[in-house]
């Protein structure tokens, strides 16, 4: 069976909806319809998808350049959109290694784009579910690519708001971080209703009715994912303000326009 045989195009998937907002080409009619329902409620979501991607770029660049991280585990990686995480990191350190994980078969169909490593580095792709950390951490794809005896950056970009408390979101993150050595990092971006509760409630309703269940969290709830870790300055902030490199266009965007928190923390 091919990857395409496994793709259910009648139901929207978060990775493909996100691809639509990023003006990608790897989505279907159901994904576009779901994405447009959210756009009608929150026109700024298209800008938000781009800003979220830029947060990932800055966090990855900082980890590779300032923290010296050479291994990345990107779960919920989504459909490839250049530059991908490994391309950002390998531009700093060509020997960087990365493992991508997603549960959407269409990402597998495009995985070759995630495997375009430098000769010095290496990348791998694994189709798996974030909520099963032990199977991901024990997978041959990960074991042949990353050395879990050395620091790893766990990147969870726009993923955790799809994992409810009932599904054990905090415990799952803890299980990943417990398996990683001292000097590893956690990177998170997460939607919030702190700035406009009515808007995010309507967005959540539009999204969950067609795409996936989820849970919007407050600042204190997002901070809980980093318990026991050392937050990198400036802490958990609206993601476009996390080390935004003096970009004036980003500086002019209000928190309510991009209600997504971002943070990076080190495991002591």
Structural category is: alpha/beta
- How many strand segments? 8
* Main beta-sheet strand count, sense and barrel state: 8 strands, mixed
Strand content: 5-15%
CATH topology: Rossmann fold
- What would CATH call the class? Alpha Beta
* Helix percentage range: 25-40%
Examine the secondary-structure arrangement and name the CATH architecture: 3-Layer(aba) Sandwich
List keywords for this structure.
disordered N terminus; SAM_dep_MeTrfase_SAV2177_type; transferase; eight-stranded mixed β-sheet; methyltransferase activity; 268 residues; single chain; Rossmann fold; alpha/beta
Characterize this entry briefly.
It contains eleven helices and eight strands. By secondary structure, the chain is α/β, with parallel strands linked by helices. Strands 1, 2, 3, 4, 5, 6, 7 and 8 form an eight-stranded mixed sheet that branches.
